[in-house]
Amino acid sequence: MSTIAKVTTYDLRFPTSQTLSGSDAMNPDPDYSSAYVVLETSDGDCGYGFVFTIGRGNDVVVTAIDTIARKFIGKRVETYLDQMRLAWDECIHDSQLRWLGPEKGVVHMACGALLSALWDLKARRSRMPLWKLLSSMEPEELVSTLDFRYLTDALTPEEAVDILADKKASADARAHDLIQRGYPGYSTAAGWLGYSDEKMLSLIRSETREKGFQQIKLKVGQNLQDDIRRLSLARQEAGPDIRIAVDANQVWDVPQAIAWIKHLEKYDLAWVEEPTSPDDVLGHAAIQKAIHPLAVATGEQMQSRILYKQYLQAGAFQVMQIDATRVAGPQEIILEYLLAHKYGVRVCPHAGGVGLCEAVVQYAMLDYVSISGQMEDRMVEYVDNQHEYFLEPSRICHGRYQTPLNPGSGIQMNLALCEQYMYAQPRIRTSADDE
Amino acid sequence: MSTIAKVTTYDLRFPTSQTLSGSDAMNPDPDYSSAYVVLETSDGDCGYGFVFTIGRGNDVVVTAIDTIARKFIGKRVETYLDQMRLAWDECIHDSQLRWLGPEKGVVHMACGALLSALWDLKARRSRMPLWKLLSSMEPEELVSTLDFRYLTDALTPEEAVDILADKKASADARAHDLIQRGYPGYSTAAGWLGYSDEKMLSLIRSETREKGFQQIKLKVGQNLQDDIRRLSLARQEAGPDIRIAVDANQVWDVPQAIAWIKHLEKYDLAWVEEPTSPDDVLGHAAIQKAIHPLAVATGEQMQSRILYKQYLQAGAFQVMQIDATRVAGPQEIILEYLLAHKYGVRVCPHAGGVGLCEAVVQYAMLDYVSISGQMEDRMVEYVDNQHEYFLEPSRICHGRYQTPLNPGSGIQMNLALCEQYMYAQPRIRTSADDE
């Protein structure tokens, strides 16, 4: 028997605003950051989790993680690892904490970091990468960890078991295929709004011709004439076979989005991402209807499964973009994939921020092995940011993510390398009582 | 000229879980709490704001307020008071902080506390209660402080000016009427789930016969047979003329809500409050359609104007329940009232938590004077909790809120009385640079 002895949370901030990498119409100067948590047991085992942020307010997330960690300190590890639903309930159904959401924003993401750290520990102890652990669980066992509250009008536990059971027999073949071929990625490297036309074109060349990505993404939405010029140049450079997606990062109102997109349609777009507020289900439904057959994509800032459910019910997008640290960890992300599968929508995860590529690829692989069984119609975003700070950085080969094989969720950082980016002293919690 | 010199944030927690006051199907043991902020100028003027919470996590809100306060320290007060839209933009459109929402949860509420403190200061300097200050502004001036981002498919600034202008000529008469008659309240005092039948009935008697409330509200949703028994007893005690609303505090899924409510309909309910997750626009629309003509009511945990917009567009409720500290202060609450008026939905504000009655009545009064011009079809919730800690506690006479006449927003606390409820040392910020 071992107990949860210590939870340390780091406020890491990388000064990315200095290079305008990551700049878009809504986010002119992000400083890619992480509220990174290390959960230690009395045996000396560790589990790792994090929340990706873009700078200011990372301390608020650190405080939330530290506050919620009090629940777990001193408790028996196996109690949670053997019944992850209990860990979920203690975080998500804490009625006092729930008032601060419910199930959204800082507190929800902080719960996600801690639940992810527990799942990471469970995978490490199982000597399996997270995707493998999850896909090796029996359908009933995996579903028993999931919370269907507020979802049963769209998806029941029985349906979830059926979806997973349906893929079980052929799962090993797909796992083998994944290890052989990896999983498709796409590149956002060329697309930041702060880049000159020359830098954009040069990056499109290297990302597609040298690195082998079959899709790129450009940021739009700040100035229509700029968007038209950049898209025209990009299409010319990329040729007709490379898919080009655009991303407005929520800058438009609904009528404005529809009008603006009409001007960009002729460049044969793969999708239009985040045309407006991620909270506006009905607005996205109106935009999707107006720009059909062009696809709306969104999700990186979708607060919870309850929003995803409604997007699917309303036909408000054709591409669902889950994020690894926006919601409450593996248990919520799996529900999102199950919902998407039931409604026949493809999932192309958001990534790019500190650790997001490393984290999200685990779920994409689970989806291929155990949920949708599809891979070639979907892809995971890739940006070459801060990978060097991870012990097992994402590896891309010919535009495809290589399959992680080491135990855990692949997001352990090399803290010695991060020293200079520690914005404040880490918060160390070893007792439930101290403040 | 004066500057913003100091922002102090208090973590106040009242041990209300000991009495089960405030207990409902979702919140068995709330400790009514406040992240209370005092903003001081170099002249020694103060503005007051707060976020109401129910205990754990109040420290996270305090941290968020303290972090956001850095923006304002050392800045000229008049710069903000003369153009409150600037203060809004610096909080809400801080692109790095926005990542933590966007516009929801802890960070959004923290922005609301600071913006409320600035409006409180503006009202104090104007020597007017907040409702009077807002209603005395010219329609164009008030609308210029509001942010219509993500709303223009439902409400434009021009429509907002028209709504306010339409009421301008008759505003003084309604203000006079308000001062004479006060504003209708309703009582939730009898309804907590933790109370025995005897305690409930005795409180129904005193709240209606002695205190004069014309509507009461009971908590439901934990056990159907209990709900039926309690409602039957309550209806018998109250008689046919007292309105009885019920409140499920989000415990149901959509199909369950519809089935459960069918069993309660016969008790002639005023409304069914929070049948499911506040984030589920489509779920509420389905419930409202199924239980029509019985009204769905919700809003106390509605995260932003973007959700309210969709509820109105989808016909998902008939009663809108704004909250004073859930969103980003007066500027967002005014938008909610304007949207409700345009869509013909009545607003019955949520209150009851520490300071919520004191705070929200200001907006109800603004609505009567300048937006809807209606009062007798709507009412503000009232619970007799923690009023004694406020310098100007809500005053109820014959079931009606008396109109606040003192300068400011009426939420200044008597901190000397709160001493024993200070959960941690206050956070004092006097410089933008310190951590």
TrEMBL record, chains A, B:
The keyword Metal-binding applies. The keyword Metal-binding applies. Pfam families: MR_MLE_C, MR_MLE_N. InterPro entries: Enolase-like_C_sf (IPR036849), Enolase-like_N (IPR029017), Enolase_C-like (IPR029065), L-fuconate_dehydratase (IPR034610), Mandel_Rmase/mucon_lact_enz_CS (IPR018110), Mandelate_racemase_C (IPR013342), Mandelate_racemase_N_dom (IPR013341), RHMD-like (IPR046945). It comes from the Bacteria. Its EC number is 4.2.1.68. Its cofactor is Mg(2+). Keywords: Lyase, Magnesium, Metal-binding. Residues 197-294 form the Mandelate racemase/muconate lactonizing enzyme C-terminal domain. GO terms for biological process: amino acid catabolic process; carbohydrate catabolic process. It catalyses: L-fuconate = 2-dehydro-3-deoxy-L-fuconate + H2O. GO terms for molecular function: L-fuconate dehydratase activity; magnesium ion binding. PANTHER family: ENOLASE SUPERFAMILY, MANDELATE RACEMASE, MITOCHONDRIAL ENOLASE SUPERFAMILY MEMBER 1. This is L-fuconate dehydratase.
